[in-house]
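Much of what follows relies on a compact textual record of a protein's fold. The record below shows the convention in full:
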Amino acid sequence: MLSKDRLINTFIDFVKISSLSLREKEFSSFLKNRLENLGLKVIEDNAGKTLGGNSGNLYAYLDGDGEPILISAHMDTVSPGENINPQIAGDYILSDGNTILGADDKAAISAIVEAIQTIKEKKERTKKIEFLFTIGEEIGLVGAKNIDPSLIKSKEGYVLDGEGDVGTLILRAPTHDRFYLNIYGKASHAGTSPEKGINAILLASDFLLNLSWGRIDDFTTANVGIIKGGRATNIVPDEVYLEGEFRSLDEDNLSSLWRRFEDNLIKLVKKGASYDLRKETLYRGFNIDEREKVVRRIVDVLNQMEKKINLTYTMGGSDANILNSYGIKTVNVGIGMENAHSKEERIKIENLYDTAVLIYNLIRG
């Protein structure tokens, strides 16, 4: 079967190599060499050049039978992610408390490598598998947004980047929109002629208080996260900048939020204000029916592993959002990482090993 000790050593080796977003080259070169030594064809695209980074996305190909299946993980990590010193403490691998660990997402990459190595050693037949290792996931899924679709033939796939124990399958994720809003009033002297001014800060406050924020319902959230305005206490402020976001699993709910948002902007105009609004969709949501083949395939494997299956949703984004937007029906798979993006990040060794077993069983012919 798979080697737990080798898997742990591979994971420790991987997380020690820094790969901050758009600075993944050292790790991607190491991974490329490792995969090529296992007999896989590996291609690097030009996404790094497009994004101003030092590495592209990697595509690796395992020959086998049938229609290809995509398996994906991201190579980059968040900060503080340099000079990582992983520790084994009981059933867990964790950092020394000065950095993140990097299980997000190198636990998945380590498990993929162990599964491939085991299959090669046992000379087993496999399905035809395409592996995608992306850059820049942590800074807005930018690597996945800049893949070369011609290098992927799969119609179905799995992104190994979910929280929750092995057995967690994320079938729904939100559309994530962002707004960038300038509200303009009119400047005047706050002491001698305040009545001549139109206070943009007060307009913005009134605007925000007329909208709902936080958790709107079980599947919809709204947040304003940045406010900037004013130049001095003796000047009626003539401009305020707001930046925020909407997320929803329901497109109708998202449209409703935008309608109310823009209706309230029109009310500001009637008070003498003007505004400039820019809207951006960071990624589209997805919703995969549990009866789809891509779900049934992995559920069958998890049942064979006697794992508890949890079909769920997330309010966060992943490369699965982008791959689904390309028409590749993609499930985000839980790999058991805990406390991601923090110095308390850790992963249970059992989950690391089970992730490798899951991949091994997915790719066997």
